[in-house]
Amino acid sequence: MTSIASVTLEVADVTAAQRFYTAFGLDTQVLLRASEAPTTGFRGFSMSLTVSQPADVQALVGAALDAGATPLKPVTKSFWGVGGVVQAPDGTIWKVATSAKKDTGPATGKIDDIVLLLGAADVAASRRFYVERGLAVAKSFGRKYVEFATPSSPVKLALYGRRALAKDVGVPIEGTGSHRLVLGGDAGPFTDPDGFAWEAASLAPTAA
Questions:
Q1: Is pTM beyond 0.85 here?
Q2: Which of 16, 74, 81, 107 is placed for a possible disulfide with 59 were both Cys, Cβ 3.0 to 4.6 Å?
Q3: Three-class DSSP category at 22
């Protein structure tokens, strides 16, 4: 079964980005490498952190803001739980959320899941593309959302309609240029229908 071995964020300043992700508590979960590839507006993806309770949402979002992130959506309670969205100094959008509405104790700082959401122009077409490359579907909601089964991967992979994803994280849909995101896996190098690049996991760089 195809899996994600690494997620590499391409950033203009690796040292500054490393400081931010260390403060955010993600220095071992994401890789970084330098890139000056031009990009404007929405990059077409977001990263989501799932935690167990609202206190952890508040703690992680607070740590991100203290480290220089820009708030996109404040931490709020909704019918599905509690969540907030920030944009890292390198431009990556991070959503922190929990399905719980009440705390069961103090914040632990523990992240239950990391999910990479790729904004797809055609979710059904992108689903077929990934299935043909060995990924199994774990959840599917028609042409709106697909989550793949990657049990051995440190990061889960999901597809969401690009417009819906932009709305969910609170940014305009417009954007051009590089995604500044590279996925490492065991299916070999390829580029998906929306321009997201994969490379062989053995070629993935190490974090600076």
A1: yes
A2: 107
A3: helix
